[in-house]
Structure formats: C-alpha cells, structure tokens
Amino acid sequence: MSQEQIYESAGFGRTVPRGSSPAIVVVDFSYGFTDPQYPTASDAHEQMRRTRAICDLARDKGFPVIFTTIAYHPGEVDKLPWLKKATGMAALTEGTRLVEINAATGIQPEDAIVTKKGASSFFGSTLSALLTGAKVDTLVVTGATTSGCVRATVVDAVQAGFNVLVPADCCADRAQAPHEANLYDMNQKYADVTDANEVMDWLRNLSMSGI
Known about the structure:
This protein is an alpha/beta fold. The protein contains eight helices and seven strands, in the order H-E-H-H-E-H-E-H-E-H-E-E-H-E-H. The longest helix has 17 residues, at about 45-60. The mean pLDDT is about 95. Keywords: Hydrolase. This is Isochorismatase family protein. InterPro entries: Isochorismatase-like_dom, Isochorismatase-like_hydrls, Isochorismatase-like_sf.
C-alpha cells in the first residue's frame, strides 16, 4: 500500500467542517522569529505578506485577528525546562525587539496579542477565553514555526473544539523538511492544510450572521 492508501484506510485526511464565525490566529510572527539577523528566525517575508492579506480581509469582515508572541521575564529563564532544551529561546525576553510583532504583518491596534511561554498558543494563555468570548468556531492558523508553535497551536485548537484551517503558504520554518512533514501530518490528523487564496475566497463568502 502507498502512504496515501495507508492513511486513507485508517480514516485520516478527511475534510474538516467550516463554521461561520472564524478568527485568524497569527503565531509568533515576532521579530525574533522573522528577522534573519536573529539566530531563532527564519525568512518569513512572503508568509507575512500573505498573512497580512488574510488579516486585512478578516478585519474588513469584522472577524477577530489575534497575534501571539513568546516573551519571558528574566526571572523565568533559568527555571523553564524548554529553555534548557532550546537555549536560543532564552533571548526572547520581555521588552526586547525580538518579542514585538513584526510590522510587516500589518498588525493593528485593535488586534489582541497573546503572550505565551511555550509552543502552543493555548497553553497557559488567554487565547481560549478570547475565542469563546468572540463565539469563534473555526480558526485560521498562520505563523512560525510550522513544526513547532504552529503545529502545537493547531493540535490544541482541535482539542479545544475548534475546526482548523492552515494556509501552508502563510507558515514559515527554519528548514524545508520539518515544514513539509508537519504540514502533511496536520492535514492528515488535525486540520485542512490549504493556501491563502482559498482561505480568502472562503472568508469573502461569509457574512457576520455567525457572530
């Protein structure tokens, strides 16, 4: 059996339902993850450009746009196990440019920013409360990195009861192999992996009746 047949026979890869009350969650498009001068970053110029177009359309339609960033207090750095494994993340400290959302995303003053300490945008944050308060049923997840914080956010989103869409051309990673492998796995198990144009076509056809 081919790989596709194995997943098909196991019941994976089905299309997820799409609701009528979406939100855009932009994961960690901060300077620390998008400005190549920093070791933790990848080149996300095109991914941010396409994400910006999705966010602009979502705002025009009245749908929530939420950004996330990782930011540590200096007193946390030597106490968190993740920072012993991924030591480069320790540079993402509060008040530095690295934790600011990259202006290339087109972030607006009305967009919520969720600060997190780990990979998932849901863990230990206000994201679930924000989405519940906005009566959201479907998430569009973009950001960095595909194999890390994007994937962790997508898995937790499904477990929190949301339908999830992932535009692949709006996600960035430091290497192509983990990027592609995690997109494949998310598409089989957790989300519909699609692209920016398809997401925008879907958003254009939604009314505000679901919120």
